[in-house]
Design brief:
By secondary structure, the chain is α/β, with parallel strands linked by helices. It has 19 helices and 16 strands. The strands form four sheets. Strands 3-11-10-9-8-4-7 form a seven-stranded mixed beta sheet, with helices on both faces. A five-stranded mixed beta sheet has the order 2-12-13-16-15. It has a two-stranded parallel ribbon with strand order 1-14. Helix 6 runs antiparallel to helix 15, helix 7 packs parallel to helix 15 and helix 18 packs across helix 19. The chain starts with a helix and ends with a helix. The structure holds pyridoxal-5'-phosphate. The site of pyridoxal-5'-phosphate has 12 residues, from helix 8 and strand 9.
Length: 430
């Protein structure tokens, strides 16, 4: 008997490992089918000689304990509502339930009455149209950037689009609007100056190749002082399609965010198409929304590129439920009841025996950069910050002036007990 054959004989059996109390405990967060899958994968490596027989047990224990989905949920204690590094908008419970329902076979492209193929994502589209007065039709694509390239390609593949120099912006992580639009073969014609662009700058620039006017909301900065820009009310007089990229996905005006454009007002002002993201202030899944004139939306829907940019059934479900269901967390955290929020913060600080400081929350996600949301934070030693990040649940706090500040704005009330446990553990280790 060769050494290799002898080794194979010593490999434990699948059912023995699956019934092993330690293995079951290590894999308690997995289903039994998932545990079996993990055990079988380790045994296969041992049988093929890629894993030493003596290491099998340890490897099985580590494999059954490692989660099938490796993303770690994070409690957001930063006070930044749409946190780019934490996946932007947390979804509403309605959206989460819709995603689970849509994960099975679902009538996303079937008319159950006739038994024939139906238009894809009709209900999500209707929910969007109902939510935005003035939108004749809507199309949902992968994200804001996808919406932008679809609309620009459709309108101006053989020509140029006008864009103010004050709106040639970088959104974040090196993502710039002009190269994105130009990557489609569309030529961007810059008009006006960084701080001032007038209607005449646009009208003087219109030539035989001009197909549309693009208006981009400079989401993450403000130009102040000696400035002029041209709104859709004036741009519509130039006789070309006006596309407004409003960025954040606010559907109606919000008094807390006076400088943030919303879809309904922008359409009323004369934009032919409005483009926005689904996962910023709308508080939904990653998506790009195209809203406006039905002829143009229909043209976008039929464009060959639309197929490459379309969203899956799960996103359609989440978006519809975001619009029709309970208030999304983004909106809740933005409009918190101040007295309740302050009292929650004080109670947590009292229990922990630490202080509270007034602080400023942010909209985040590159939106409403000048808006400061008055809030409160619990003061912890700076050394708590890394311990909180690496603890379970993971907690992200803000480090400011040598202190670790924990803001309850974006922490659901039902997570406060978990949060408190994590903070106590970090205080013990700091
Ligand atoms: C965020 C943003 C985009 C990009 O949207 P994504 O959904 O991230 O692709 C485009 N334009 C503006 C003005 C934005 O604020």
């Amino acid at each position: 008997m060769g050494a290799r054959e002898d080794g194979r004989r010593r490999i434990p059996r699948t059912d023995v490992l699956l019934n092993d109390a330690e293995v079951r405990f290590a894999g308690r967060d997995k289903s039994s089918a998932e545990r079996e899958l993990a055990v079988r994968a380790v045994l296969a490596r041992a049988r093929s000689g890629h894993l030493d027989v003596d290491d099998v047990r340890a490897e099985v224990l580590s494999e059954v304990a490692s989660p099938t989905y490796s993303g770690t949920p994070v409690l957001n204690g930063t006070g930044v509502i749409v946190h780019t590094n934490l996946g932007r908008a947390p979804l509403s419970s309605s959206a989460v339930r819709a995603m689970v329902a849509a994960s099975d076979y679902v009538d996303v492209e079937l008319d159950l009455v006739t038994g024939r193929r139906g238009p894809r994502g009709m209900a999500s589209r209707e929910a969007l149209v109902r939510s935005v007065p003035g939108a004749e039709d809507a199309l949902i694509v992968n994200n804001g950037a996808a919406a932008l390239i679809l609309v620009c390609t459709m309108l101006a593949q053989d020509g140029e689009i006008l864009l103010s120099r004050g709106e040639m912006v970088e959104i974040g992580d090196g993502f710039r609007i002009p190269p994105l639009v130009e990557s489609t073969g569309v030529r961007l014609r810059e008009v006006g100056m960084t701080n001032r662009t007038r209607l005449a700058d646009y009208s003087d620039a219109i030539g035989p190749q001009t197909r549309a006017i693009l208006k981009v909301h400079p989401s993450n900065f403000r130009v102040s002082g000696f400035t002029t820009s041209v709104g859709c009310v004036q741009l519509r007089t130039l006789g070309l399609p006006v596309i407004a990229d409003i960025g954040s996905g606010l559907l109606a005006p919000d008094p807390l965010l006076p400088d943030e454009p919303d879809a309904a007002s922008t359409l009323r002002d004369g934009a032919d198409l409005v483009i926005a993201s689904g996962d910023k202030l709308l508080g939904g899944p990653q998506a790009g929304l195209i809203l406006g004139k039905s002829a143009l939306v229909e043209q976008a829907r039929r464009h060959p590129l639309a197929r490459a940019l379309r969203v899956d059934k799960i996103t359609l479900a989440a978006l519809e439920a975001t619009l029709r269901g309970v208030e999304p967390p983004v909106s809740t955290y933005l409009h918190l009841d101040a007295a309740d929020y302050e009292a929650r913060t004080n109670r947590l600080a009292d229990r922990l025996g630490v202080g509270v400081v007034e602080t400023m929350g942010r909209v985040g996600g590159g939106g409403a950069p000048e808006v400061q949301l008055p809030g409160w934070a619990v003061i912890l030693p700076e050394a708590c910050a890394p311990l909180l990040r690496e603890g379970r649940p993971a907690v992200l706090a803000r480090v400011e002036q040598g202190r670790c500040l924990l803001d309850l704005r974006c922490i659901p009330t039902e997570s406060e007990a978990d949060l408190e446990r994590a903070v106590r553990a970090s205080l013990a280790g700091a």
